[in-house]
Each structure stands twice: as structure tokens, then as C-alpha cells.
Amino acid sequence: MLAVLDLFTSEEPVWTAESIAARLDCSIPTAYRYLRELGDCDLLRSAAAGQYVLGTRIVELDYQLRMGDPLLQAATRPMRELARQSECDVALTALSSQHLLTIHYESTQAEMRASYGRGRRMPTFRGSASLALLSALGKPMLRKLHAANLEEAQKTPGAETLEALSAQLKDVRKTGYATSIGALDSQNAGVAIAIASEEHNVLASLGFVMSLQRFRMLESQRAASMLNQCAQEILLNLSATTIDGPI
Length: 247
Description:
Blueprint: H1 3-6, H2 17-24, H3 28-40, E1 44-48, E2 51-54, H4 56-68, H5 70-86, E3 89-96, E4 99-106, E5 121-122, H6 128-134, H7 139-148, H8 150-154, H9 162-175, E6 178-181, E7 188-197, E8 202-211, H10 212-217, H11 220-239, E9 241-242, E10 245-246
Antiparallel strand pairs: 1-2, 3-4, 3-8, 4-5, 6-7, 7-8, 9-10
């Protein structure tokens, strides 16, 4: 039943019982039962006759996540300060099941136009944030992720095969950071590092999103150094946190 929620995307935000039944290969009565049960707990709501959208419970859960997730609590202030100092947007990206997702985004520039803000799935094999995160994965996890997103991988230069992707990530590990120019938005560039800590159960990437002009001004190694300092502060904040809250 929860697979129904995965159908709702920014590209397809509205669904009917008939379209759900066709996509999930189930009967129309079963689709209506799913809609009724998800609607009863406000995960879905009726937007018009026979049409359904995500419900208000999603908004409530998002608030609880932002207020209660230790990583978000630890990262918000350091990322905000880094965005202010660098005059760049700062994004925190994490692995979510078989996808990569921006879980926090700080911006100090109203004129910045970035397509992949908080809550939107990232291209799995394209862009500095994704490549930095993938560089921290072990071979079994990378193989599983590549297989789960094989169609996307085959359409992404440098990721068509697991061997090609591994070679690309080897270069990222060697430099300690990933860069990209126009990979997600033609007018933007990115620099990102991996944050991997078994102690804190963190596997993510922290990256700058900036204009091409700013990218030419900010040397990549210096950008990576600033990101590493921010990452260390995030991990220190996590060390000072328990399940019950800050010590």
C-alpha cells in the first residue's frame, strides 16, 4: 500500500484510482481501498472528484523530521553560517533507499536558481553532490545502487557500467572532493565532499551550489576545505547530542 505514495511526484502530483491500478498492476477496487486507508490517516486527500494528492499529514511529518532529526539539528546552523561566509548555497544530500535526496538546503542569495532544493531526488550519477556521496559507498552498496538505477545509469555519461562509474569515483576519492559544471543547471556549478561516519550513522555529502562566475572565483580546493570544516562541526554537534536532545 505504501507503494502508492511513491507514485506522487512533482511531475505527477495527482492520481486517480484507475491510474494507480494501472501503474501498480492491481485491481481498481484494491486501488480504492488503498486510497481510502491512506486518506483515513491524512497521507492522501481528495483534491477533486476522483483525484487525489498528498495529504496534510505529510506536512506534519516534515515538521517533525526537521525538528527531531539529529543530523538536521546538527547541520542547520553550521550550513547557514557557511552559506553566509561563502556567498554560496549549501546543500546536504543523503542516501534514501535506492535514491539520493537533498535533505537540507541553505541559501543566502535570492537570485540563485537551483533546481534541486530540499526534498527533491537528485540525479543518482550526475552532479558533484551525488558523486561525492557515491565515492563513500562500499563496492556492494554501489553495485546494488547501480543495478537499482540501471536505466538512469546507462543514460549518464561515465556511469553506463559499474566499472566506468567506479573509475570516476576513484578520481573523486583521490582529490577528496567532486566538482561539476552545468551538470544539473546550466548556469550553476558545484563542489561537494562526502561525510561518512559509522559512529554517527551518517552517510551524506555536503556541497556548494554556486553561479559559474562564483565558481571561477572560488578555488575548488579552498571550497573543499571550507566544506570539510563545516562537516567537522556537524559531526561535533552530533557527538554532543543524545536521543533525548542536546547534552
